Amino acid sequence: MAEYIENELGRISIDREVISQFAGHAALDCFGIVGMATISMKDGLAKLLKGDNVSKGVSVNQAEDGGLIIDFHIIVAYGVNIKTVVDNLVNTVKYQIEDYTTVNVNSINVFVEGVRVID
Predict the structure, then answer these.
(1) What pLDDT, in 10s, does the model give residues 62-95?
(2) Which helix (H) or strand (E) holds 27?
(3) Phi, psi values for residue 44, rounded to 5°
(4) What's the CA gap between 112 and 84, in Å, rounded?
(5) pTM of the entire predicted model
(6) What's the pLDDT tens digit per position in 34-67?
(7) What are the backbone angles phi and psi of residue 28, rounded to the nearest 5°?
(8) How far is CA 1 from CA 41, 60, 87, in A?
């Protein structure tokens, strides 16, 4: 399913995978985030995702009013204030997605799946 933007010249379709990738890369640019995570249903362990796989740690859904609901599964750096990191993530991603797509972001849910020590 895709998000649609209409203007006087026509209709623009943005696939949710594109929004997921953009949101994942925007999240990785935030201080304190080591990477995105995916949960293995087999053993319940979080796996660190980087590069082109970041979209697997992001879920994008459409709300009834047409806005976006974005879920992040992240791994944070050891020793950082998790609330501060998550607040920065939410504000940064909301601004960038709305600026990039002009689609409203209704909510961003963040699930911290692990902590890693940065070398």
Answers:
(1) 888 888 999 999 999 999 999 999 999 999 999 9
(2) helix 16-28
(3) 75, 15
(4) 13
(5) 0.82
(6) 888 875 544 455 566 556 567 788 999 988 888 8
(7) -65, -20
(8) 25, 10, 28
**Tokens representing residue 77 in the block:** 């750096």
How many Cβ atoms are within 10 Å of 77's Cβ, its own excluded?
16
Q: How far is CA 106 from CA 8, 61, 68, in A?
A: 25, 10, 5
Tell me the C-alpha to C-alpha distance, in Å, between residue 61 and each of 32, 40, 117. 25, 21, 32
**Residue 8 structure tokens:** 């006087």
How many residues does the structure list for the chain? 119
Show the tokens assigned to 25.
């890369």
Q: Which two tokens stand for residue 51?
A: 């590069």
Query: Do 77 and 33 meet the contact criterion of CB atoms below 8 Å apart?
Result: yes
